[in-house]
Amino acid sequence: MKYCLLIRKSLILIVLGCLAPFTLGSESLYVLLDKMKVKDGKIGEYLEVEEAWSNYHKTLIRERQIESWSVWRSNQQSYDFATLKVLKIETEDTIDLDAVLQDLYPQKIIQNFQSKHDVNASAVREIVETSLWKIETDTKGGKGWEKLLSISDSIAIKWDAMTPREDSENEYLRIESGIFRDAHQLLVNEKRSLSNWSLLKLTGVSGPEKTAPYATVHLIDKNKAPPSTPLMEAATKSGYRDEMKMGELRDMRSNQLGLVMGVSKAGYSTYPLMDHINEEELVKATVLRQTNAGHDKDLDTVLSSWVSSPNPNALRNMRGKNGNYSETKGVWFIANRYRDWAKNWGEDTGWYVKMENEVLHVGQSVASIIYDQLVFNGKDELMGKSKEHRTLVKEDGQWKIAFMTVLGGIDGGN
Asked: How many domains would you assign to the chain?
């Protein structure tokens, strides 16, 4: 094996019966990134699985195999969450991703861990890509990758995937690692929101899609104001000229990651985003519970999902796929309309709904969600699709529906 994970203590070699200290050579900082796609309706269970996995990564940190482990929420639709492992590797040759994974996650140990903790990660998520990145250069002065989880309780990562255009790689790297590194150093020096900037190089990847070979990463403290100096002004001070045409040297795709939970040498922590995600899941669960209860012929659950009577401003309006329109205002009238429908509901038919393409905003006491609703029959056949909107308010700590709009639903539905 041509590399080993760095253990920061001397190795003792027995040579001719004598003990002689031998210290490992230079080390490089790497980031191991897993992109996760969570299965429908499984976000809460997924986070529970990751919380269980935090125990395994505590051991890796204690054994000095990794610096930190963390879970982040993604803004990209191609994946929902990402896990990041920061590690130091001493290398004599090219790093092999499979060998790194085998060192960190030996199959037998992982099987024992999953059995002991009753963890079945594959039931709630799919790893769509695993990649290993070497930190080629970064800024100094602010907290960087080695102190990633101590930057802020509201840290964000701006990850810009960079693909140099044909015959432009050398020029791109010269400007990125030189001029733009210096420009970002000026911004870090302001001691505002930008804590660190780094240029990463892809050293190994496993996944179905072609991954950009480079990335620039901003570590951002969202509790602080952004730097006062615009980036291009800082770049000009660092030697950038318009004729360099950085935008023509590479293609860029950006994503933002928010910290959910993590483990460092200081221990396990959750972050404010974790609570926010949990609230989002409660909002979605309330909406789905109310709609599915209608298909389940469960009148009590339907009514209990709405704000309490006599709220006169609650509104339910529906426009069916054939153009039929209905509007009901006031909780008392909405409840009576449901009761009238319930007289003709008959037996549970096994119909149910799913959500797709949710746009969700959650405040302390008001939430709004827009989504595509898919209606399936008891044979899992798609029967209809609609664009849905709900506004919810909190009553006694519980989310309740106050406004409901349906466009393109099933005529005669609930």
From this structure: 2
